[in-house]
Amino acid sequence: QVQLVESGGGLVQAGGSLRLSCAASGRTVSSYAMGWFRQPPGKERVFVAAISRSGSTTSYADSVKGRFTISRDNAKNTVNLQMNSLKPEDTAVYYCGARYLPSELTITRQYDYWGQGTQVTVSS
């Protein structure tokens, strides 16, 4: 079992920044690829960013490329999402996920564990 707890969400004006953190515990977290997803009100959960077990490989949704950066610290069992130049359309609940297999990291249903989510609201 892996437990994930997100933090760092909040209300920010357009153009601002937030840093989300995902604290992991349980089985060896460094054995899992990690991803961030988001779910806007009334919509499905969608891929935002993912990072490999070692942190050497990252991937991003086109909508956040150049603005968001995913990183991980395996010694601290944390995964972060630095979000810059935020837009109102970034408003959503953001979820951290863990996937044991290092493939199909953009697909929501492939993840093994999820956190409870953290709300991000960007005002115009």
**Please, how many helices?**
0
Would you report the number of β strands?
Answer: 11
Write down the overall geometry. globular
Structural category is: mainly beta
The main β sheet shows up as: 7 strands, mixed
Distance between the first and last residues' Cα:
40 Å
Radius of gyration of CA atoms, rounded to a whole number: 13 Å
**What fraction of residues sit in β-strands?**
over 45%
Q: Can you describe what's shown?
A:
By secondary structure, this protein is mainly beta. Helix content is 0%, strand content 51%. The protein has no helices and eleven strands. Strands 2, 4, 5, 6, 9, 10 and 11 form a seven-stranded mixed beta sheet that branches. A four-stranded antiparallel beta sheet has the order 1-3-8-7, with no helix packed on it. It is globular. 33% of the residues are buried. The mean pLDDT is 96.
